[in-house]
TrEMBL record, chain A:
The chain crosses the membrane at residues 15-33, 40-61, 67-93. This is NADH-quinone oxidoreductase subunit K. It comes from Hufsiella ginkgonis. It is found in: Cell membrane; Membrane. NDH-1 is composed of 14 different subunits. Subunits NuoA, H, J, K, L, M, N constitute the membrane sector of the complex. It catalyses: a quinone + NADH + 5 H(+)(in) = a quinol + NAD(+) + 4 H(+)(out). Keywords: Cell membrane, Membrane, NAD, Oxidoreductase, Quinone, Translocase, Transmembrane, Transmembrane helix, Transport.
UniProtKB/TrEMBL annotation, chain B:
The chain crosses the membrane at residues 6-25, 32-49, 55-76, 96-115, 153-175. GO terms for cellular component: plasma membrane. It is a multi-pass membrane protein. Its main location: membrane. Its EC number is 7.1.1.-. PANTHER family: NADH-UBIQUINONE OXIDOREDUCTASE CHAIN 6. One of its GO terms (molecular function) is NADH dehydrogenase (ubiquinone) activity. NDH-1 shuttles electrons from NADH, via FMN and iron-sulfur (Fe-S) centers, to quinones in the respiratory chain. Couples the redox reaction to proton translocation (for every two electrons transferred, four hydrogen ions are translocated across the cytoplasmic membrane), and thus conserves the redox energy in a proton gradient. This is NADH-quinone oxidoreductase subunit J. It comes from Hufsiella ginkgonis. It holds the Pfam family Oxidored_q3. The keyword Transcription regulation does not apply. InterPro entries: NADH_UbQ/plastoQ_OxRdtase_su6, Nuo/plastoQ_OxRdtase_6_NuoJ. Belongs to the complex I subunit 6 family.
Length: 109, 182
């Protein structure tokens, strides 16, 4: 058991921060370059997951389980967001027969 | 480097590579199914940051709920999927317009990476940042989380439940076939 603790402690916090930054940037890239609504949703989930990972890492390194509580709130938020967003996507598809968000450009200024 | 750390870095590499493929591939089916791999590897990383219950919830909520929902939306909204498979040049067309997006993403990454540069994160002695406190790798965190949720974070917890109910009703109302739309 002590081996496992040592192993988990062996990964420095800097690497978690770097990994989360990379995943978040990948999510930003996906939101910006893709025009498919489902891929954009997956990119948003990637960004939320990057924040979740960083929250759990900081909670482990500061030895406080409160960070994991926030992860659950973010997960509830993400689930609700996906439910409503996918309902909207299905409605958009029903009205325009596509999920390309360039079709929905009437809201642009 | 012991095998545990090696597994952690392998998981991190799997996350990054599969997330890149999810974002960059032109095929939506591969994108959705590779997102499974990303989420499972992220669940493994949660285990490595001492959040076992979060990892289980990740598998249940994301893989079992969110991703299946995405698959449903994908199948409901892609009758012309086979047509798009026949024209592979469409993805290459917008390569030049992706440059500003790449610059913005690189800027975000630079800001995130630089802002943590000056932080004194590593303990001077190496790996002694875990004082013997509440979070131990040996026991599970469900007990601690339950106590936190029912004491310090009771109001956000209740608000989250009301919020989920609102989202459920709203999604059901949005996705139902209205009288005027048919």
């Amino acid at each position: 058991m002590q081996d496992i603790v040592k192993t988990i402690q062996g990964v420095p916090l800097n690497h978690y921060i770097l990994l989360s930054a990379i995943i978040f940037s990948i999510g930003v890239t996906g939101v910006l370059i893709r025009r498919n609504a489902i891929v954009i949703f997956m990119s948003v989930e990637l960004m939320l997951n990057a924040v979740n990972l960083l929250l759990t890492a900081f909670s482990a390194f500061s030895n406080d389980p409160a960070g994991q509580v926030f992860v659950f709130f973010i997960m509830a938020l993400a689930a609700a967001e996906v439910a409503v967003g996918l309902a909207i996507i299905v409605m958009i598809y029903r009205n325009t027969n596509t999920i390309d968000i360039n079709v929905m450009n009437r809201l642009k200024w | 480097m012991n095998p545990g750390e090696l597994i952690c870095y392998i998981l991190a590499g799997v996350v990054v590579i599969s997330a890149l493929v999810v974002v960059l591939t032109a095929n939506l089916v591969r994108s959705v199914f590779l997102f499974f791999v990303t989420l499972f590897a992220l669940a493994g990383l949660y285990v490595f940051s001492l959040a076992d219950f979060v990892a289980v919830t990740q598998v249940i909520v994301y893989v079992g709920g969110v991703l299946v929902l995405m698959l449903f939306a994908f199948m409901l909204s892609n009758k012309e999927l086979l047509n798009s498979l026949r024209q592979p040049a469409a993805a290459k067309l917008s390569m030049l317009t992706n440059i500003p997006a790449g610059i913005v993403a690189a800027g975000v990454f630079t800001v995130l990476a630089i802002s943590t540069k000056g932080l004194q994160l590593a303990a001077p002695s190496g790996m002694s940042l875990f004082p013997a406190g509440m979070l131990n790798a040996g026991d599970n965190t469900i007990h601690l989380l339950g106590v936190r949720l029912m004491t310090n974070y009771l109001l956000p917890f209740e608000l989250a439940s009301v919020f989920l109910l609102m989202a459920l009703i709203g999604a059901a109302h949005l996705a139902r076939k209205g009288k005027e739309s048919t």
